[in-house]
Amino acid sequence: MTRRSYGTTAAETTPALSDGVQENENEVLDESRALLGRAGEPQNKPDSKKDGHATLVSCISNLLNTIIGSGMLTFPLAMASSGLIPGMITCVISGSIAAFGLYLLSLCATKTKHRHSSFHAVSQLTFPGAAVFFDAAIATKCFGVSISYLIIIKGLMPNVVESLYHALTSESTNPPKWALEGRNWISFFMLILVPLSFFRQLNSLRHTSYIALFSVAYLLVIVITCYYWPLNGMPEAGEIRLIHFTPSFVSNFPVQVFAFTCAQNLFPIYNELKNNSQARMNIVVGGSIGTATLTYEIIAVFGYLTFGSKVGPNIIAMYPSTTVFVAVGQLAIVILVLFSYALQVHPCRNCLDKVFHPGHVVVPVKDTVDEDEDDEDEDQDRGGDEHAQEMSVLKHFLLTTGIVLSGFIIAYLVDDLRLVLSFVGATGSTTISFILPGLFFWKVIGDI
User: Fold this and answer.
1) Structural contact between residues 340 and 259, judged by C-beta atoms closer than 8 angstroms
2) 354/413 Cα distance (integer angstroms)
């Protein structure tokens, strides 16, 4: 910057003012381009030299929102199948496994081209021939989870409407029939979900993640409050045991393990995090997994202590919904699931792009900019998108539209949530959470 004296003229200050205005315009542009794509003006420097713009708080919030979903409502039942102490231990073990997998993936991300890491990019460094199959499994998993969110909304909203209607009014009549039809609600909520699904960057979804996490906090308040001050109409608590394994433990333990699945968004967060050093990535991983583990433990412990062996598969359904306090809690679940939808569409779209155009990353292309040639030559030996280009506007629009439209049609016609979740668990979840992190790390370290 040029030093100016107090006698600087107005003409001399104009460039500085223009620079400040330009910086503000660039900040606004970075936020607005997330909806449809990059600005039409070319950049002066290659993408590999850009720094991220996402903060630690936004990255932790987005990853935490990816982790926490409706599966947290089943944790008290999982604890009832093993007892209080084993249930707490298995929850910590599940979180530790997930955190270790994310840590391995973050190490693998450092071997890819700067801020262009992805499952496909790491696959090109490890198992190039299987890269398309890995992306297909991840896309299938994310697509199935997004459908399950819509089905959950379809099933919950009629109960929420009925509960709020009777809690807020003194009328003995029922709500209008259209308000008790779940298909009408997912059709209405698509007006909110469609714009969110078109955002290109996870950081653009940070505000919806904040809202979703407030919903989780409200659910914690319900579980803790109803333990100390039980509501009228709550069932009597069953037997509470410190250690008591039942045959259902075999089927309930995987629920805890898969409740921590979030690896599909680890690479986008790595790309967007400002100063994405390993230490800062460890904070993101530890903060998100640690908070999720604490949340699950609170819900599991207080839910189990409240209902004991009589606890059901959905803890929020155990509380009488005749009060506004609990009815709003049911609405909080809808909000949580609603604002988690776009976090599944984002990785699904990116993986489908690689599935349909796998050749885009096979042969790295050397950047033409002469600055910092040594750093750029090093980047060419790493995985990354060819030319380091973003997805075109047309491709982004077509893929997003296809994912959202097909998912809506399936959710509109299908009511069996277990069918969707079993399909997801048998395909992408296992691959993402347990197979790929260790496999990638073993191959990357072995090739060093």
Assistant:
1) no
2) 29
Q: What's the Cα-to-Cα distance from 54 to each of 30, 117, 317, 379, rounded to whole Å?
A: 11, 16, 37, 22
What helix, strand, coil percent values describe the chain, rounded to 5? 75, 0, 25
pLDDT digits (tens, 9 = 90+) for 245-286: 888 888 778 778 888 888 889 999 999 999 999 999 999 999
353/273 Cα distance (integer angstroms): 22
Q: Which contiguous run of DSSP H or E holds residue 436?
A: helix 436-447
- Determine the Cα–Cα distance for residues 331 and 321; give it in Å rounded to an integer: 11
The three state secondary structure string of 82-121 is: CCHHHHHHHHHHHHHHHHHHHHHHHHHHCCECCCCCCHHH
pLDDT digits (tens, 9 = 90+) for 130-187: 888 888 888 888 888 898 889 889 988 988 888 888 777 766 677 888 888 999 999 9
Of 360, 416, 406, give the one whose Cα is nearest residue 152: 416
Joined together, the tokens standing for residue 259 give 């409740």
CA distance 427 to 326: 35
d(CA 254, CA 77): 12
Whether domain 56-359+392-443 has CATH 3.40.50.2300: the reply is: no
